[in-house]
User: What shape does this take?
Amino acid sequence: MASPSHLTEIDFLDAVLAPIVITDHEGRVRRINRACEQVMGASPSDVRGQFVWDLFPPAEPTGEFQNAFLRGCEFEGTWQTSDGKRKTITWSATVLPECVIASANDVTGLRRAQIKFQRLIEAAPDAMVLVNQRGRISLVNAQVERLFGYRSDELVGEEIEKLVPERLRGKHLSYRRNFLTGSRVRPMGSGLDLYALHKDGHEFPVEINLSPIETEDGMLIASVIRDIGERKQLEQTILEIGEMERRRIGQDLHDGLGQHLTGVAFMGKVLADRLGELSLPEAKAATRIVELLNESIRMTRELARGLLPGAAGERGLVSALEHWAGETRDVFRIDCRFECSDPALFEGEALAEHLFRLVQEAVTNAIRHGRAKSVVIGLAAVKGGGALTIRDDGRGFEYVPGLQSGLGLRTMNYRARMIGGSLGVQSQPNGGTVVRCFFPLADRKREAHYAV
Assistant: This one.
């Protein structure tokens, strides 16, 4: 009769859900548990004395299973069952003085899921990089090689900062740590210019979306990276076309409508003088018509001057904005004023031109779409640079940060980036709108604020 301790050992082995095999030091089976019987479809007496690698022959025998088993190492291989099915088994063996005990784990479903996941990543049209919590690259797809010039084996295990321009790596480290504390699906660096680093050393603009993925090994961050160099070029082309059209309209106003009104005013003046010489009562009305025509000529020339290039550079940004506020009051009959605390800080032709056009766009939107009756344009020095603010009392709108769907908003955002700045919009229905542009004063060159 078996002793109680022997019964306890058998009960313990059979209670384990994973297949367990106990062999001698040469790999011959001494005992298997109930889970192993079910997997193999054989009784303990059928397998006792046989080599374990003969009972679980790898689909492609290499001797590696045998060596790993007898050394007490982990091994993963594909096993073909008696009914022809292929299973992926992970073995973990421990060598004891009396025997070798090993447990098997069927990871077929897991490996199939991993293969599907890998295929899904490979099928993605954009570059995909998976990064672990330590900031090291775990997986990349084929598009990464096309985009960055690296092979996958050159990136896996490396820090993600390898793909970040050196001048931006310090900032990227802090932003990466912040993302891990509150990770969620979102675009990266919303409203900012993002740049990545190619293997050959050149930088290129990118768009990045981040997604946290929970795995058995911890959280991974999936980065979907797209080269937007062509889009940037298209934005620049659209802006240039807009400037050309603005210039054409300004020139037509000045040379066409302005000259036509001047001719009509001259004819009106001649008519008013003749009526005056004849002492006719219509002379007064004719004189008034001439005055209105001259006022229209002045307004036309002012509008043309605002549309033609160099409008801000010629007279300086502060003076140009003061003049623009006055023109807006006269033309649209609304309250529009300009405020500036330190005019001397905001000079420079490129800076002035972009800020001036940004104000024009924002004020036009406020009047045309927001039906504003009051607009305040503010220019001030703040810590680290300057701030341009356009505040109105119009209807406002429902604004979603990071979603610039209108061409006007996109244009303003692009102009802000061209001077190294950032644009923010705050608006609520019936609550007016505030447009803010923060920009550097010391270095007015365009500069990225973020990276991969």
Observations:
- The radius of gyration is 38 Å.
- Residues 230-309 form one domain.
- Residues 60 and 74 are 17 Å apart (CA to CA).
